[in-house]
Amino acid sequence: MAAAKVGGILANDTFPVDFLSENLQIQVNVMDAALEHGVERLLFMGSSCIYPKFAPQPITEDSLMTGHLETTNDAYAIAKIAGIKQVQSVRKQHHKNWISVMPTNLYGPGDNYSEQGSHVLPALIRRFETARLEGASKVTNWGTGSPMREFLYVDDLAEASLFLMENYDGDQQINVGVGEDLTIKELAELGGLRGRLRGGD
Q1: DSSP notation for 20-59
Q2: Which among 144, 146, 145, 128 has a CA at the least distance from the CA of 136?
Q3: Is residue 150 in a domain?
Q4: Which residue among the candidates 51, 76, 107, 113 is catalytic per the annotation?
Q5: What is the pLDDT of residues 105-147, one digit of tens each?
Q6: Is 76 a catalytic residue?
Q7: What are the Cα distances from residue 129, in Å, to 115, 133, 141, 193, 196?
Q8: What are the Cα distances from residue 12, in Å, to 63, 118, 128, 167, 169?
Q9: Which residue segment(s) compose the domain that 42 sits in?
Q10: Measured distance CA(150)–CA(47) in Å, rounded
Q11: Per-residue confidence at 195, pLDDT binned at 50, 70, 90?
Q12: How many CB atoms lie within 10 A of CB 55?
């Protein structure tokens, strides 16, 4: 179950009611219908934003609910935490083998490159490509560049999800990632180097 209203920091911070309400409705409606129709196996897909803002890195599953969430996307995170709790509750009350998976930051075909709704990687790609096309000498990015992020290709998440559906049956949510992260500054510097090289072509 990957259906969700998603967006980057700006969208989450600007429309918290939309992200909380729509995601709760999606989750409850789908899971209630699945339970009513006797679905034995369901994978609920959440987000790494469920973890506290200052969770130790790398983030482990037991960091859930141990600190304050990032305020820019706490409404979305709370909806996803509610989804995990619903899966756990179905397991406890109805004994269904449902699981929750929390992917790291995803990228790949069909990504959102909009200025208002994109996540960090497509946002940076759009900024650097726009700068290259316009012949700009610099790109301005948000924040300090110090937050750490991990990135996973969507096909790898699909493969991991199928593996977990076939091999995992636990109450706790499972993080899915590559196990390596980098700062936003490091990511931007990679993009900046590529932009300079491509600009000279």
Answers
A1: HHHHHHHHHHHHHHHHHTT----EEE--GGGS-TTPPSSP
A2: 128
A3: yes
A4: 76
A5: 888 898 878 777 777 787 888 888 888 889 888 887 778 878 7
A6: yes
A7: 13, 6, 13, 12, 10
A8: 22, 10, 23, 34, 32
A9: 9-199
A10: 12
A11: very low
A12: 17
Q: Token pair of 122, please?
A: 């497509």
Asked, for residue 2, whether it belongs to a domain, the answer is no
What is the CA angle 94-96-101, rounded to 5?
125
In a domain? residue 133: yes
Per the domain annotation, does 68 fall within a domain? yes
Number of domains within the chain: 1
Q: Please answer whether residues 3 and 58 qualify as being in contact, where contact means their C-beta atoms are separated by less than 8 angstroms.
A: no
Q: What CATH number has the domain bearing residue 184? A: 3.40.50.720
State pTM to two decimals.
Answer: 0.82
Are residues 44 and 3 in contact, defined by beta-carbon separation less than 8 angstroms? no
**12/4 Cα distance (integer angstroms):** 13
Cα-based angle 201, 109, 10 (whole degrees, multiple of 5)? 90
Q: Can you say whether residue 108 is alpha, beta or left, with left for phi > 0 and alpha for psi between -120 and 50 degrees? A: left
Q: Please report the pLDDT score of residue 175 as a whole number.
A: 97
Identify which of 100-109, 137-146, 179-188 has the greatest average pLDDT.
Answer: 100-109
